[in-house]
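Researcher: Structure prediction, please.
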Amino acid sequence: MLTLIIFLASFVSLAFWFLFKENNEIRGIFGKLFLSSFGLYLGMALLMPGVVSWSTLAINIVFLFGAGFFLNTFSSSKIIFIPMLILMTIGYYCGVRGIDWFPFAESDALEQTTSTSTNIDGLDPDNELLVEVSNGHQLSELQTIIDQYQLKLEPAFALKDGASTDLDDYYAVNIPTNQIAHYDAIVATFKASNLIDHIEANEVLSLDPSESIAKDVLARKKKKYTANDPDVEKVWGHEAMDVEALYELLATQKIQPKKKAKIAIIDTGVDAKHEDLNSSFVSISTDHNTDPHGHGTHCAGIAAAVSNNGIGIASFAPTGDFVEVTSVKVFGKYGNTTQRTIINGMLLAADNGADVLSMSLGGPATAQSQRAYKQAVKYANKKGGIVVVAAGNENIDARKRAPASVDGVITVAALAPDLDKAVFSNDVSGLKMGIAAPGVDIYSTIPNNKYEYFNGTSMATPYVAGLLGLMKSIQPKLTTEEAYKILKQTGLETRNTKVTGALIHPANAVKSLLKK
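Model: Predicted structure follows.
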């Protein structure tokens, strides 16, 4: 969607560059806008593989200059030029997004045609589709379709316990470049075969931008804290969630964990050598133990920074006996991933004993994208894991995001220091299990033994994951539904609890857990 907006911005600025060719000052402004927006679009297309397919790039360039120079022929008449520019812009947008906007689009024949039209821009160029073969049928029965379109299929997901899920029936479908124009026909042919239960696009997803802020914004009054970590005073959530009460409860009640709960950060990787994480970090594979972006390491610190080590910040666990943290890297070096990669990350975490899966990621939700995610959540639940997901940063209904809207996950909204909904945070009021945590001006670990402030529901999510890890260490058999009920009943009111959900209160949650 972002690339589409940037491309349209370059088209419109090019058009106005032509329209005002007699006015050097205005033309110069639109010329700079065109060059900057088109340069950004090309940069994203060339430097972030998978965001824009090569075929789409070629088509868009032809459209940009073809339509632009066509409009130039009418630039002497604004009465003609402006309506044509509006129609061409809306028509292009609706065509790419698959939106019917002509008055006659209500006919049955046209509905049947447009309802299957899919934009391949934004799909994984290596595996555009995910197909679930029906029980009782074999992949070999699809060979006619495979041969017809020269497709390549491989098992979509790697998991240890295939008997407990249908995810082992999923295959990733690679459509060769010379067949990509037949995308809709391929989807229709699979559906008509009666050999599959489900088919969906394997979309490319990108990290939500996390915004660093100036350190002097958060000058706070120094107080005495139980934890000896020097930067606790920079963590405003420590006071908002009354973490001191949690430390006191754990100490006075002499609460001991029944196990060390494992929190899996499914993200950009984690800097396993960070000074405030290394003693609590356990590795699934060295492939996951570095973080070129910093996003995953920041989340890991929020969830499980080592407390009382005299370094950096503190987490909910006062000692290293309660939780450990691991990393599952699902984002590539350019900050992109796919639905298939995310689900494989969930399965890997579950198969490696994760008690909590922390997922500060997501993308647009569709009816199709829910199915595989839902099965992955069920798989993790059967393995004893609780899945926690970021609500998203678009200031929209979180039901429009996946996996935030998938049944069985706890979805986290972000709060500002005044306990109002963060301006960017999505609304979780329409979800079954929405909750809130601090998500603005969050100070935590980043690679190379550094620390920084970030904003986002990405930051709120590991707060909840860290608390759930603590709770699972005390009550290992705790289920998602039981955990959410406790969080909701013991949480604090925000300035708009209906929209954000309750603010987690760790001490109250642990007290409630001990009564069970």
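Model: DSSP finds 16 helices and 16 strands in the chain.
Researcher: Thanks, that helps.
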